[in-house]
Structure formats: C-alpha cells, structure tokens
Amino acid sequence: MPPLVLDNFPSTPGKVKLERNNYFGRMSHRWHTSSLTNPLLWLFGLASLAVVLLLLLNSLDGYGYSVVHIGSTWGGAQWEKQVRLSAHPKRRENKVVLVTGAAGFVGMHVSLALKKRGDGVVGLDNFNNYYDPSLKRARRGVLENHGIFIVEGDINDAALLKKLFHMISFTHVMHLAAQAGVRYAMENPSSYVHSNIAGLVTLLEACKSAEPQPAVVWASSSSVYGLNTKVPFSELDRTDRPASLYAATKKAGEEITHTYNHIYGLSITGLRFFTVYGPWGRPDMAYFSFTKDILAGKPITVYQGPKEMDLARDFTYIDDIVKGCLGSLDTAKKSTGIGGKKKGQAQYRIFNLGNTSPVTVPNLVNILEKLLKVKAKQHIVAMPGNGDVPFTHANITLAHEEFGYRPTTDLSAGLKKFVRWYLSFYGADGVNRS
Ligand SMILES: O=C(O)[C@H]1O[C@H](OP(=O)(O)OP(=O)(O)OC[C@H]2O[C@@H](n3ccc(=O)[nH]c3=O)[C@H](O)[C@@H]2O)[C@H](O)[C@@H](O)[C@H]1O
C-alpha cells in the first residue's frame, strides 16, 4: 500500500498555503493533572478526536493516498435536483456537457455559451486558492443566474465522478480544470502533478467506465512547443522539449489521453490554447496583473529574451477560444467503448487555438497604458530561467479546416473589452464591486 501522506491543504493546493495544524502542540503545555478531572475538557478532547478521525476518513481516496476534500459539499436530494436541472438540455438534440473548471476563466465563458444555445451544462470546480477564490465565486454567481449549477468538488474525487456519470448521461466532457501558470510550477510542482496528471487520469477512468462514454474535449497548452523555434507552431512540430513542468504535464496529458483513446475507445480532442485573455480573466496572467499594478502606480516587471529581444505571445481573445471549444465539441465523434471496452477505432485530434498574430510584451504594455490613461513604471529585466519561452505563434490551419476556426479579435480590441470589465468589477482602486 502506498504511504499515507497527510497534507493539510486543499486537494489542489493553491498559492495561499494553509498552516499545518499544530493544535495539539499548542494545547499540550496547558494540560496538567487537574485538567484530567475536568469533564468539560474531556468532552472537548473527545469532540476534537472525532473531528480528526472524520478528516482522516475523508482524506483517503481510492488509491490510499490522502486527499483532503475541504469544501467538498456534494450529495443529498437537493444537490441531485440541482445537478439534474442544470444538466437538462433545451431540446432532445442538444448536448449534455460536464464542464470541469467551470468557475475558471475559460470554463465560465464556455459554460455560458453552451447553456445559451440550449445544451445541458453541469459545472465542476474545486474553488482552490491558486488565485483569489472570490473571483471564482463571482463567476459562479454569473453561471447561477443562467441556470448553471457548479458541483463543488475535485477531479481527483473518483466517487464524485462515478456518482455524476451514474446520474447523468453526459454526451461530452469539456475538461478545463487544471493547475495553470508557467512560472508557478517552480514554487509548487506537486500541484501540477496532482491536477494535470492524477486528476486527468481519474477523470478519464470515470469517462471510460461511463455508459454511454462521453466524447472528451480538453485544454492542452501552447507551452507544449517548448524550445521549438520553427514558426508558426504547427501541430506536427516537435513537442518533446518542454521548458516548464507545466508544459511537461500538458504534454503528458496529450499522451495519457492517447492511451485512453487507444485502449478504451474514448473520443479525444486536445486544444492547445495560446495565452488566452479577456474579461473575467486570470489575475496571475501578465495583462491582468499589469493592469492592476499600472492603476495602483506600482512598477511592473517586463522580461526580455537573450540579446535584449522582446518577448512575444500569440495572445488569443476569450470569445475566439470559446468558438474553438464549441467547434471542437460539435465536430467530436462519439466514443466507441461499451462496458469499459473499446469496440472500434475512436477519434483522436489535437488543434492549436491561437490568434496567429504575436504581439510583443512592450506592445501589450503600450496598449494598456493608452486604455488606462496611465504611464506604466517599467522595470525591464532579463527573462529568468523559470520555464518561460521567448515567443509563441500558432498555425491554425487544422482547426480552420475541421470546424472553420477563425479568430476575429485583435489584442487592442480584446484588451479594451478586458479593461472595461476590469474597471466595472474592481474599479480603478482595485476594490471588487460585485
Ligand atoms: O499559452 C499557454 O499555454 C500559457 O499561456 C499563459 O502563459 P504565458 O504565455 O506565459 O502568459 P503570461 O504569464 O500572461 O505571460 C505573458 C508574457 O508576459 C511576460 N511576463 C509575465 C509576467 C511578468 O511579470 N512580466 C512579463 O514580462 C511573460 O514572459 C510572457 O512573455 C498562461 O498563463 C498559461 O497558463 C498557459 O495557458
């Protein structure tokens, strides 16, 4: 049996680290002989023991590893009613989609788009604290207003997934839950393994056993191109030289999904997103944190590549990404497995979803300065060796041929929409007004 490791943080640990519980350590010096005769203290002690035992039981997942499901609130008649209602499609021909990471940036937008066209949508999210969970809760509020319920739970929770697939015949899974961020992988490597590897496998296990098996569309990343220098990046290019652990876990995900396609007949589509930005975006990304800091009059750090070369990204606006996600779902063929066994060859696809027009980071800053009407205090430094790559540039021919993917929003237009949202949500002083 694998060793029991007790971690005191959410199953997908975030940036905010919880302190280890040293309750007994702190209390022990207060105990002395007279305490033993105090019935109130005995009662308190027994209650604490019961809580610890419950936590321990809750912490064991199917593999004998410990996963503490803090905030896992699923189950019960009312919960089931909410799930079924949310999953209900408008018409028989509509899809029924499980969206993992639904309280995330891309997850929120994709869920809304699916619901608006009549698909049944059930969200799943563990609301971890990698970035401010209040933003995730605000996104959940938006989804709730549109009749979308988010199950609070983790993709590593096999029992929860089994229950969901038992209750609902999902036609598709849009798997967007992940540990994101390129540079954070050096700070918290295990969170990438936990979500992007272990969580992915747990989810695929549930999909392969489901009756019927859903078609799976999931978020890979442009970062898999790693040290590739041939531009624009094509799906046929090398992806065996990742520059970060984040990229390595996404590349591993592409290979793991391939095995589930090969062995169990799961229909798989992997989407390599290129630096997605827009309203309701991720606060850890450069365009978002630059906006916050520029408005606060704080300096921003702009990285430069070798020989003072500007870094560049194929920044892709969220609405274009949503179109790519829906196009992928709509062209995904059915999985072929029954009873956990493959019955025929199933579809396996990988697509770039980028904008095809890279913009340098100093240009990104220029656009933000104009939109915010504030001059940025820039601190220009050499790109640290922490997983970054100098540039990205997508070739989108495959996605265009397969489902007519054609991005339509350039960085200036997209950032204008982002800044408008940012100011309405946080205000110029950065205080959340939702
Ligand atoms: O396409 C992806 O697959 C990834 O896209 C995104 O990663 P990146 O493209 O690295 O975006 P982002 O951090 O916004 O940095 C943008 C630029 O600003 C530069 N950058 C960054 C921070 C800073 O302080 N200074 C700076 O110059 C930085 O050097 C870079 O040149 C997602 O976060 C990631 O989860 C994944 O989805």
Number of helices: 13
The beta-strand count equals 13
Poorly predicted runs of 5 or more residues: 1-14, 16-36, 51-69
Tally of discrete structural domains? 2
Shape estimate: globular
Across the major sheet, the strand order is 3-2-1-4-5-6-11
Q: Give the fraction of residues assigned to helices.
A: 25-40%
CATH class of the largest domain: Alpha Beta
Q: Tell me the Rg in angstroms.
A: 23 Å
Share of β-strand residues:
5-15%
Quaternary: single chain
Label the structural class.
alpha/beta
In sequence order, what are the helices and strands, one letter per element?
Answer: HHHEHEHEHEHEHEEHEEEHEEHEHH
The hetero molecules present are: the ligand O=C(O)[C@H]1O[C@H](OP(=O)(O)OP(=O)(O)OC[C@H]2O[C@@H](n3ccc(=O)[nH]c3=O)[C@H](O)[C@@H]2O)[C@H](O)[C@@H](O)[C@H]1O
Distance between the amino and carboxyl termini: 48 Å
- Can you identify the CATH superfamily of the largest domain? NAD(P)-binding Rossmann-like Domain
Can you name the CATH architecture of the largest domain? 3-Layer(aba) Sandwich
Largest sheet: 7 strands, parallel
The CATH topology assignment of the largest domain is Rossmann fold
Mean pLDDT: 88
